[in-house]
Design goal:
mainly beta; Lipocalin; Jelly Rolls; eight-stranded antiparallel beta barrel; eight-stranded antiparallel sheet; elongated
Length: about 350
């Protein structure tokens, strides 16, 4: 059957619109459950000896699958500090419990009780603690370019025929691993970028298979996105400049909780003959805390150690969001140009 060019274009846009304006059924409910995990997250409280409240104790709890959870006890949240105890706890009769003969704990409902069998028979009591980024919901400056506000893909390059990332009914952008990465139409060099994101709930997964994505500046320098909540914070985890610099502190929040990146990027400098004068530099605030500060990047992100590193980038290039096998979600993305104007 012969069809006109107009008809073909209309059908194309209908398919894209139908796909992008996805309903709740496309939100991958297995990894974005409506019922929250009763144990997952941050807990904070005090040691109690007799009637006295002693130093702080905090915990990060995250699922491992098969009714098991990792429990990390320490003195303070979101700082690099020696642990008090790292232990696997199990769900028993609706409560999360552990007992290694010295430390014991019982998490149920709104409270996390526990203690240690020392001379004072010290105990602790913790309650749930939720950290909210101070830049959550940040409004774009007057001259900023709004890359995504829930309304569509005007600032992004076209997708393959009939496929796209998903815009959910609440205006959230969800990565579609079947499509791959997405790129801005405009190109940038020096800029300040705000991104809000959250990682899916994948208790059975480990390492790079758990909420993997990334934000690329100048299409070359990646700030890693990963569900690395409760982990040490290595060079390939959330807040890292991938394979270049580990975050100063692991500021990754629990999966399903919205987080922020505020990134200030300064592109590499070259002379008129194209000779490199200065490497690119980047500052990254993760949930309002500096995890990279004016860090020099001698090369771009490279995944293959057998190949030469990605050389410093001279020309303006798109911002890229990565699809890496997981349905990571995004919202409120805007960029403010610093110095020279972007190109479209």
């Amino acid at each position: 059957m012969r069809t006109s060019t107009t008809t073909t274009i209309s059908l194309l846009f209908l398919m894209i619109f139908t796909r992008t304006m996805a309903g709740a059924d496309d939100a991958n409910p297995a990894s974005y459950p409506e019922t929250p995990d009763p144990f997952l997250g941050d807990w904070a409280g005090k040691w109690i000896v007799g009637e006295e409240k002693k130093p702080d104790i905090v915990a990060q709890v995250f699922p491992l699958g098969n009714n098991e959870y990792q429990v990390n006890l320490t003195h303070k949240l979101y700082v690099r500090t020696p642990p008090i105890l790292n232990i696997i706890a199990k769900v028993e009769e609706g409560a999360l419990r552990f007992d290694d003969g010295y430390f014991w704990g019982d998490l149920s409902g709104d409270y996390f009780f526990g203690g240690k069998r020392d001379a004072e028979n010290s105990t602790f009591r913790m309650e749930r603690f939720t950290l909210v980024s101070p830049t959550m919901g940040a409004k774009p400056p007057r001259k900023a370019v709004v890359l995504f506000d829930g309304s569509g893909f005007d600032e992004w390059q076209r997708f393959p025929f009939g496929k796209s990332w998903d815009i959910l009914e609440n205006g959230t952008l969800q990565a579609n691993p079947d499509v791959g990465n997405i790129f801005t139409q405009r190109t940038f060099r020096d800029c300040r970028l705000h991104v809000e994101f959250r990682t899916p709930y994948l208790p059975e997964e480990r390492g790079q298979g758990r909420g993997n994505s990334g934000v690329f500046l100048q299409d070359a320098y990646e700030v890693q996105i990963l569900d690395s909540y409760g982990l040490p914070g290595y060079w390939n985890e959330c807040g890292a400049i991938y394979q270049i610099s580990a975050p100063y502190v692991n500021m990754c929040l629990p999966p399903l909780q919205w987080q922020t990146y505020d990134i200030e990027f300064r592109a590499a400098r070259f002379d008129r003959k194209g000779n490199l004068l200065e490497n690119a530099r980047m500052t990254v605030l993760h949930n309002g805390v500096a995890v990279q500060k004016d860090h020099e990047m001698p090369h771009g992100t490279s995944y293959d150690g057998k190949k030469p590193p990605v050389p410093p980038v001279k020309d303006p290039a798109p911002i890229r969001l990565q699809a890496h096998g997981n349905h990571v979600q995004f919202r409120n993305i805007w960029v403010e140009e610093l110095g020279r104007r972007s190109r479209r």
